[in-house]
Structure formats: structure tokens, C-alpha cells
Design goal:
This protein is mostly helical. It has 13 helices and twelve strands.
């Protein structure tokens, strides 16, 4: 029986017992990311059934060696009884019907206690949150864990120590600190530093930090509805566009034509230099949509400036480090291409101008980081002085 749920905001229910570290219920980074994608493709009709294959999941996640990782994650989720499907030899093209937990499933009611923390219920994750996680493809699952945990804990104004983060993420405290710092720098989470105090022994201590998910900008585009039939229509539409485009570069990189996919400087270079009207049209729609917010405008402008540098200082027409060959279109024959492949050295790929520009950017970042640390130290010292003053006044 299909379970249809009407909800204004579309989200995937992430079971919180997935975070019960040290138990059989704990999931890996890959498993939680794949679980979200399965739930994402349930939105259309039945929220408890996902009709999908590994190819489509890989198109969404874009992981390195991703298909094997996805197959392993599916197996892990089935072993841990978060999903079920009837296929023991899953291949990339195998069309799967995957059963997901129903809204009133007992899976969400089960309580797992670790120390003083009870993991139960679920947290809703929407596509905006997941897109923020995918900005770092190497750590998509780990970032998803952080944002899910922050959303869950922030409801009760809970403060999370670095030791707890290390356990929840199964990393060292140092790695957890670096991850939180990066997410804060990307304006994905807000961190309220704990105030300083003096304990009974006269030692200065600091309270545990409090975390919140920042208000993330939504890319306002005519995104498709993730039903099974709509997914196929979208893929067919992109394929038809590729058949008619006159710019062979998009055969290797289709991001400009696929709404919802991540864009970067490489896409802007294609957009600014292409003579294909299809790419011009779709690229303009995407960049106009992103530019509707101030943050989006700044992002598009950043891409444009970096693209101008790349266009003005081309890398001597060499193959880029992704290993794709340089493709040249034969004049007046749209379907004929001349492929020039040769061995290249990565060190030779960057021109002296590019290396100098990177050096300047690196020095700027280091200077900004130095100033930020000085401001933080000054703020902490000021707060401590104010606290001491209050204590002295209380004693008087």
C-alpha cells in the first residue's frame, strides 16, 4: 500500500539513531548521504518507496569511484535495516525498488542510549541543506551528519563539545575542530563561543560552544519535481539538448544544462566563451536565478572575475588535470570532432601568471586569517576583563 504524505516543505526524515556511535545502528558518511538521496526520490508519490538505480544516485552525488561506494552504502543500509530491497547482486544499471521507513515506522520510535544521550526520533533535511553539504564532495556525508546533528540539538539549545563531535563523526577532536571551522567560514553554521568563567579552584575556563545552522540561500530555479517519471524526463531533455549543442565542451561537463547541479569557474568560462545559443540561453537563466540574492550575486561575480583571468591567460591549450582530452570542433561540421591527446605534466599546466595570482590570493587569505585571530583574542580578553570587573563589583 502506497503511503502518500502532503507536506509544504519537502524534506527527508533522517533517523537519529544513525548517530548512535559504537552500536550496530551507526552509519558511515556514505550511508547517510545515500539514505538522503533515496528519500529525496520518494517525494513524488510514495514516501516509503524509492524507484532508482546506482547510475542516478551517482549523477546526484558525483563521488570519486562513486558507483562502488554507493553499492556498498546500499548494502550497509540494508544490513542495518534502514532500507530493504530484493536484489543480492546490485550493478550500476540495476533498477531497484527500495522500501524506506514509513512516517509512523517503529524505527523512528526506537531509543538508543549512549552515555547520557538518547538517540531517537528523526530530523528533517531539505534540499538546501544537502546542497550545502555537496559543496565539498569529498566530505558530503560528514557535513550532512554535522548539519543534521546541529538541527537536532539546537531545538533544545544544547551545547556540543568537541569530544562529542569526535564521537558522533568518528574522527579525532582536531579533525572535528577543523571541520567546524570550515563550515563556519563558509557561512553554513553559526558558532556561539562559550563565555569564560573561573572555577572553584580559580582556574579560567570556557563554556562549551553552541551551534546553529545559518540561514542558507536557496537557488531560485525551475527545479524539477523528483518523481520517477520526472527524473527520466529531465535526463531525456538534457540528452536532447546535447544532441543539438555546437559546443563539445558540455559533452564532458553538462552542469549548465542541468538545473540543480553545482556550478563553478569552469562553467563560467564555457558560458563566456561559447558561441552556442543553447548554452548561452540556459547559462543566462541559471546565473540570473542565482543572482536574485546578494550572496548569489557575489558568487556569480567571483566566478566571472576568475573566468576572465583564465580566458586572458589560457594554459597553452593543454589538457586539464581531470584527464579529459582537448576537444576541437571542426568548422561547419557540428558532429565531427578532432581529439588531441598527449601526456602532460601537472606542474606545466599552470602558467607563471596563474601561480603568481594564487600566491597573492594565498597571502590575502593568510592575512585575513591573522586579523581574524587577533580580533578573536582581543574579544576574549575584553570579555574576560568585563567579567572580572563584574565579579569585583559583586564582591564590593
Amino acid at each position: 500500500m502506497n503511503e502518500v504524505v502532503e507536506q509544504e516543505e519537502k524534506f527527508v526524515r533522517i533517523p537519529m539513531k544513525m548517530f548512535a556511535y559504537g552500536t550496530e545502528h551507526y552509519v558511515t558518511d556514505d550511508e547517510i548521504a545515500v539514505y538522503y538521496e533515496l528519500g529525496f526520490h520518494c517525494w513524488g508519490r510514495d514516501v516509503s518507496v524509492s524507484n532508482i538505480n546506482v547510475e542516478l544516485l551517482h549523477a546526484r552525488l558525483k563521488w570519486h569511484n562513486g558507483k562502488n561506494r554507493i553499492i556498498e552504502a546500499l548494502s550497509g543500509l540494508r544490513t542495518k535495516k534502514y532500507i530493504s530491497y530484493n536484489c543480492d547482486a546490485v550493478k550500476a544499471t540495476t533498477y531497484l525498488t527500495i522500501n524506506m521507513p514509513r512516517v509512523k515506522s517503529k524505527l523512528f520510535d526506537e531509543k538508543i542510549k549512549i552515555g547520557s544521550t538518547t538517540y531517537a526520533a528523526w530530523e528533517g533535511i531539505n534540499e538546501t541543506i544537502m546542497n550545502a553539504c555537496k559543496q565539498d564532495k569529498a566530505n558530503t556525508g560528514k557535513r550532512l551528519k554535522v548539519l543534521t546533528y546541529v538541527l537536532w540539538r539546537s531545538k533544545i539549545r544544547y551545547r556540543t563539545s568537541y569530544n562529542e563531535w569526535a564521537n558522533v563523526l568518528q574522527v579525532s577532536e582536531r579533525t572535528a575542530i577543523r571541520l567546524m571551522k570550515r563550515l563556519k567560514e563558509e557561512s553554513i553554521i553559526d558558532i556561539v563561543s562559550g563565555t569564560y568563567y573561573t572555577d572553584l579552584n580559580g582556574n579560567v575556563r570556557q563554556e562549551i560552544n553552541k551551534y546553529d545552522v545559518a540561514k542558507l540561500e536557496v537557488e531560485d530555479e525551475n527545479s524539477y519535481k523528483p518523481t520517477g517519471s520526472a527524473n527520466h524526463r529531465k535526463m531525456i531533455k538534457v540528452a536532447e539538448l546535447l544532441l543539438h549543442t555546437t559546443d563539445e565542451r558540455v559533452l564532458k561537463r553538462t552542469n549548465l544544462l542541468v538545473y540543480g547541479s553545482n556550478l563553478d569557474v569552469e562553467d563560467m568560462v564555457i558560458y563566456m566563451t561559447t558561441k552556442c545559443p543553447i548554452i548561452k540561453e540556459y547559462g543566462k537563466e541559471r546565473y540570473d536565478a542565482i543572482s536574485k540574492s546578494l550572496k548569489g550575486q557575489a558568487l556569480v561575480e567571483s566566478w566571472r572575475q576568475k573566468a576572465e583571468i583564465e580566458i586572458e591567460n589560457p594554459s597553452k591549450n593543454k589538457v586539464k588535470p581531470n584527464g579529459h582530452p582537448n576537444v576541437k570542433v571542426t568548422p561547419n561540421v557540428d558532429t565531427s570532432v578532432l581529439i588531441d591527446m598527449y601526456i602532460y605534466d601537472y606542474d606545466d599546466y599552470e602558467s607563471p601568471e596563474e601561480k603568481e595570482q594564487k600566491r597573492i590570493w594565498r597571502e590575502r587569505r593568510e592575512e585575513q586569517e591573522r586579523k581574524r585571530k587577533e580580533e578573536e583574542k582581543e574579544k576574549e580578553a575584553r570579555e574576560f576583563r568585563e567579567w572580572l570587573k563584574e565579579m569585583e563589583e559583586m564582591e564590593l
